[in-house]
Design a protein that fits this description.
It comes from Cloacibacterium rupense. This protein has 177 residues and is mainly β. It is built from two helices and eight strands, in the order H-H-E-E-E-E-E-E-E-E.
Length: 177
């Protein structure tokens, strides 16, 4: 069993090709910058900028399949109406698990720490999503989280895309993956 656990962790570290000076916990903790996109009835495609920072409850050492975490996800929504363009923010407390076998973070929005009131009868909604960790093949030294939003039954939401990078110079309003 110990050999299998070691082998599993070694494969994950080799796959992501982590720098020796950073632990898996440090890399997955972020911070992460990116965007979320989803099809919303009567609005079409809605995009938000996101900034996420996570804290793991224990060291990811390969002794288990799942590792719990908590953190925050700041959401940035730019909205234009007849009065102009305005940016709205929400700060969401998140929690979830990292599955070492499929290299995937399962993230749940737990509660709002703070948020701006949205115009035109719109409301912020808590949700959940899953993202898989990758080494960024196009940008040396950076890592990616790519995935989708999930509904209450863990089905993929229509047209959803989620993209995070450890490259904090990434601008979700000017760059797409």
């Amino acid at each position: 069993m110990k050999k299998i656990v070691f082998s599993l962790l070694f494969c994950l570290l080799s796959f992501l090709n982590f720098a020796q000076e950073k632990t898996l916990n440090e890399i997955l903790a972020g911070p992460w910058r990116g965007f979320s996109s989803e099809q919303v009835p009567n609005m079409g495609e809605v995009n938000t900028g996101v900034y996420m920072k996570l804290v793991f409850n224990e060291k990811i050492d390969g002794s288990k399949t799942e590792y719990p975490f908590y953190g925050t996800n700041q959401i940035e929504f730019i909205y234009t109406d007849q009065f102009g363009t305005k940016t709205y923010f929400a700060l969401v407390n998140v929690s979830g698990t990292f599955n070492i076998k499929d290299k995937t973070l399962y993230v749940n929005d737990d509660s709002f720490a703070s948020y701006d009131s949205l115009p035109d009868g719109m409301n912020w909604e808590l949700g959940k999503f899953k993202v898989t960790a990758y080494k960024d093949q196009d940008h040396a030294g950076f890592f990616l989280l790519k995935g989708v939003s999930l509904d209450a039954n863990n089905n993929v939401k229509s047209g959803s895309r989620i993209y995070y990078t450890t490259d904090l110079t990434y601008n979700p309003w000017k760059q797409k993956y």
